[in-house]
Design goal:
This protein is α/β, with parallel strands linked by helices. The chain is built from 14 helices and five strands. Helix content is 41%, strand content 9%. Helix 5 runs parallel beside helix 10 and helix 6 runs antiparallel to helix 13.
């Protein structure tokens, strides 16, 4: 059976580490890559800095980039995905677990592009199915919402205006969530950023489109404390998988210190004493039973 696992990773949940050091090297995994991987090695970085030569790395699944925006908003019958499905069919393995990873596909504010999340998930499932994958499942890693808010604000500090994180106080965001949601500006900011961390809604959409038992959820804090937990989950999908977890520091695994602007520092100070349950009341108890544990 051709089986595929869609790693719809959140930023700041060790996604880069998994993409560069785990999926690529693990026995039993056919890693399809991350679309439009723009990372550069040292030689490529040197050539770009001094010679302006762009040596970006192109993964096998790069054709997805040409379809991504439309797949996020249009139903499959309105999209010509035949070429993408044909390309995918040529790289899928019938013996190994096919793993595809992308942390931005389901992010509402990415490139300020529109997103219908249910449609986006359904289209991704449909293109893998059309390519011959009889079994399409998903993996998502969730991190403590308060730490995610703080960590993401720091990571995206250069794009603070783009993400609109600080345009409303956390108290105003909580008031919007508990209101009739008629405030159009607050609704925009919610869609661009805060909705992305509504884990309950995200899980419900994934389960609704892929089916119960097809969505696997890991707690970030548990995973980085014991990497064999992830290996156990992957082996439950494909017994032949053996993972290697090298001790490499990545920006998603351990936050780096930054000198942030005054508005972001004010946001972080505000967050320190704020209870995220006021914004995400169901991010805790409602999905607690969904986290993967060893059999």
């Amino acid at each position: 059976m051709t089986r595929s696992l869609l790693h719809l990773g959140y930023a700041k949940t060790a996604t880069t580490y998994l993409q560069r050091h785990v999926f690529e090297t693990s026995a039993g995994i056919n890693y399809l890559g991350k679309p439009f991987d723009l990372s550069k090695n040292r030689l490529e970085s040197f050539a770009y800095k001094y010679l302006k030569l762009d040596g970006r790395q192109i993964h096998r699944f790069d054709p997805f980039f040409d379809h991504e925006d439309v797949m996020r908003v249009r139903p499959s019958h309105q999209i010509d995905m035949g070429g993408l499905a044909h390309h995918l069919r040529s790289i899928l393995s019938e013996t190994d677990l096919n793993v595809w990873s992308h942390e931005g596909y389901l992010r509402p504010g990415r490139k300020s592009a529109p997103l219908d999340r249910k449609t986006a998930i359904a289209n991704l499932r449909d293109v893998f199915t059309a390519a011959g994958s009889e079994d399409v499942q998903a993996l998502i890693v969730l991190r403590d919402p308060k730490k995610m808010l703080a960590s993401s604000a720091v990571q995206f500090h250069r794009d603070f205006d783009y993400l609109r994180i600080g345009d409303l106080s956390l108290e105003e965001v909580a008031a919007f969530v508990n209101s009739d949601r008629q405030d159009r500006y607050a609704a925009l900011i919610w869609r661009l950023w805060y909705e992305y961390l509504d884990y309950k809604a995200m899980i419900e959409d994934l389960v609704g489109e892929l089916g119960k038992g097809k969505v696997h959820v890991l707690r970030y804090e548990d995973m980085v404390a014991d990497w064999s937990l992830l290996e156990s989950l992957l082996q439950s999908l494909h017994p032949g998988i053996t993972c290697c977890f090298p001790p490499v520091r990545e920006n998603t695994t351990e936050d780096k210190p930054y000198d942030v602007s005054a508005p972001i520092q004010a946001y972080l100070d505000q967050l320190r004493d704020f209870d995220p349950r006021l914004i995400y009341p169901d991010n805790y108890e409602a999905i607690d039973g969904l986290y993967y544990t060893r059999p």
